[in-house]
Amino acid sequence: MAPLSEAGIQELRAKTLEARKLSYSPYSKFKVSAVLLTDDGQYIEGANIENASYGACICAEQTAIVKAVTTGHKNFVAIGISSSAGTVTPPCGICRQVIREFAPQIDVYMFTEKEDYLMQPLTALLPHSFGPEDLLDLPAK
């Protein structure tokens, strides 16, 4: 996939920062958002949703992916991620795997509140990954 233009990066950044308002994080106060850009130009927002039972928390990236897939979107150009930490926040390991399921070649843009950002292809964040193709050709038993 080709990297986004500077204008595309700034639009994804703005939508990602805005989506942090959707976070439900009363326990950690750590607000995270993720915005997927689909191949048809739509932006799909997600935010972290906490739960008093911490194991039931849902990450922003997972929220965005589930929302996208359940509304018929499976082709993505980029994903933007932002947190209230003030620094670049990469996706956690589980989120990397969830993103990988649907977008193994996606570019991941990690934004700060300032103009700073880091872009890494998912292949750099999750090298030698395991995906659907590793299961499709298994012999029948």
Instruction: Tell me, rounded to a whole number, the average pLDDT.
Output: 95
How many structural domains are formed by the residues?
A: 1
The largest sheet is: 5 strands, mixed
- Helix and strand element order: HEEHEHEEHH
**What is the CA–CA distance across the termini?**
38 Å
Strand content: 15-25%
Give the full name of the CATH homologous superfamily: Cytidine Deaminase, domain 2
**What is the β-strand count?**
5
Radius of gyration, in Å, reads 15 Å
CATH topology category name: Cytidine Deaminase, domain 2
- Which architecture per CATH? 3-Layer(aba) Sandwich
Name the helicity range.
25-40%
Number of helices: 5
Order of strands in the sheet with the most strands? Answer: 2-1-3-4-5
List keywords for this structure.
141 residues; alpha+beta; Cytidine Deaminase, domain 2; globular
Task: Kindly describe this structure.
The chain has one domain (6-136): 3-Layer(aba) Sandwich (Cytidine Deaminase, domain 2), CATH 3.40.140.10. Helix content is 30%, strand content 21%. It has helices spanning 6-19, 60-70, 93-102, 122-125, 133-136; strands at residues 32-38, 43-47, 76-83, 107-111, 117-121. Strands 2-1-3-4-5 form a 5-stranded mixed β-sheet. Helix 3 (93-102) links the parallel strand 3 (76-83) and strand 4. The longest helix is centred in the N-terminal third of the chain and has 14 residues, at 6-19. The protein is globular and about 50 Å long. The protein starts with 5 loop residues before the first helix and ends in a 5-residue tail after the last helix.
